[in-house]
Design a protein that fits this description.
Elements lengths: L14 H17 L3 H14 L1 H4 L3 H13 L6 H10 L4
Length: 89
């Protein structure tokens, strides 16, 4: 079980704060070289809140790290996220 699944986020937190927390989780996974989980979180955010994700410089840094650490070519869905965020892949 991922640690972030055991964290209970308060209903009093803004949606933006909750989304930022998930970016933090994606970043931690990228740093731990758990790219699959990091991409899954980014994909979920891209699906649920594209209008918010589009303007997050931190998301671009996470994708940059994932691209830098990759061992194979990006899949189509990963390249789509990179393009959406304006990150060269």
């Amino acid at each position: 079980m991922e640690i972030h699944n055991t964290v209970r986020l308060s209903n009093r937190l803004s949606s933006s704060t909750k989304h930022r927390y998930m970016l933090d989780v994606a970043s931690a996974n990228a740093s731990a070289r758990n790219a699959a989980e990091s991409w899954a979180i980014l994909h979920d955010l891209r699906t649920r809140v594209p209008h918010w994700l589009k303007y997050q410089s931190f998301a671009r840094r996470v994708v940059d790290q994932l691209i830098e650490n990759r061992s194979r070519a990006l899949r189509a869905d990963q390249a789509e996220i990179a393009t959406f965020l304006g990150v060269e892949s």
